[in-house]
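Data deposition worksheet. Section B asks for the primary sequence of the deposited chain exactly as it was used as input, without tags or linkers unless they were present during the calculation. Section C holds the resulting structure in C-alpha cell form. Section D is free text for depositor observations; keep each observation to a single sentence. Incomplete worksheets are returned to the depositor.
Section A, Depositor: J.P.
Section B:
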Amino acid sequence: MPVLYMEKSSVESLTEQDIRDIIEENTIGMKYGKLNDYYIGQHSILGVTKKDSTAPNNKLVNNMAKYITDTATGYFVGKPVIYNSDNDVFLQEIQDIFDYNDEQDHNMELAKQCSICGNCFEMLYIDEDCKIRFAKVKAGDLVMIYETETGFTTPLAAIRTIYSRDKNNNLIRKVEFWNAYQTLHFRSVNGGYLNLENITEHYWNDVPFVEYINNEERIGDFEGVISEIDAYNKVQSNTANYFQYNDDAILKVTKLGDVSSQDIADMKEKGAIILEDGGDVTWLLKTIDDTALENYKNRLREDIHLGANVPNMADEAFGNNLSGVAVSYKLWGLEQICAIKERKFKRGLQRRIELITNILNVMGRKYDYRDIIPNFRRNKPQNILEIAQIITMLANDLSRESRLQMLPTVENVQDEIDKLEEEKNKDMKDFGSYDNFAKIFQTTEAEAPEESKAGANE
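Section C:
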C-alpha cells in the first residue's frame, strides 16, 4: 500500500530507528507489477502449459487493458489542461515553468499511470541550473504518509526508494525520508542494514511530492475486469487451438487390411485411394459450435467494456455523423469516470502549483497559488459545424471569451482574444490609409475623397 496515516505529532517525533522500522515494514506489494504487466501485454495466458506436450498451445493476448487505459487517458487529457488567472504576471511565470518541464506530456504520463495503477506520484526539485523541475514517480517506488484527520490532502512525509547496481554488481538500495524541512538519506548493499548516510535541508516548506489518484479507492481503469480479460484471452487461444488441431488432424483408416505409412504417404501425394468393401478413410476432427462460441466471445467483450465504462470505438455506430447529443450518450459511462478523474487530478495540479509558489515566494514573490485555475477539456469526437452554429446563436447572450472556450480547436482563449484584437487594430490602421481606401472601394486617385488624400500625404 503506497499510503500510511499517522498523527502529525507522531511523525514530528520520529527517531532514526523509527523511520528505519517504517521503511522496512512498508514494502510495496506485487499489485503494481501485475497491472503494469497487463498494460504492456504480459498477461497470465502466456504462462499456461498443457499436460499433453503435443497438443496445440496457442497463447493469444488481446490487450484490452492497454485499449482501456489509452482510450480513457486520451479522452481525459488528450487536450492539454489550460490555466486561467487574473494575475497575468503570475500566470506567465507558472506557464514558463510548465513549458520548461514539458508539462503537457508530463500530465499525459501521470494520467496514464493513474489509469493503470490507480495512482502515481510526482516529485518536485531544483535542478543544477536552479530551475524548478518535476518528475513522475511510479506508485511502487514511494510511500506517502498523510495526517489521519484529513485523509490524503495533507502529506506529512514521503519515503522514496531507488534500486541500482554498482560496478561490482552489488544491489544498492537507497531510501529517502522527506518531511517538510529536511531529507534523511539511507543506503544498504545487497539487502543489508540501512545506514543513515546524511541529512540535507530543503526549502519547499512542505513535502515536495504530489499524489495523483484515479479515484478515492485508488483502483485502475482495467483492474476490475482483469478476470474477463483473462477469460477472453483463453477462449481466443482455445479457438486457435481447435483450428490448429484440425489442421493437423489424424487420418483414420478402417478395414483396408495392411496399410503402411508409405501407403498413406502415397495416398496423400496422388490424391486418390481405392477402398475395399467396407473400408473407409476419415479425419479425427473436433467439432466446434461456431455460433455459441462467437456469442460467448461477444458477451465477454461487452462485459469488459461495460465493467470498464470504456466504449467500443470500433462500433459501427461511431462511424456515422452523429450529433453532439448522440455522441454524449454513447460516451456517458466514460464521461462519468472522467468526471471523477478530473476532480482528483485537479487536486494534484493545485498542490503542484502550491509547491512551486512556495519556492517563488522564497525568491521574493508574493503570489497566492489559488489565483491559478486549471481547466480540463474532453478530447471527444466533435461535430464542429453544429458547435459553430450554436456559438453563432449565442452571440448576443455570451461573451466572446465564453464562446471561444466552446471551440474544441482553441487551446488558449486569451491568446486567441489577443490575436483577434491585433487583427482588428491592424485592419483599422490599414483602412485609414489612402492606398487601402482606394483599393477597398476600387477608386482612382482622382476619385478618392480629399480628406483621405490629405491623411495619406500627412
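Section D:
Residues 1-224+300-380 form one domain.
The longest helix spans residues 332-362.
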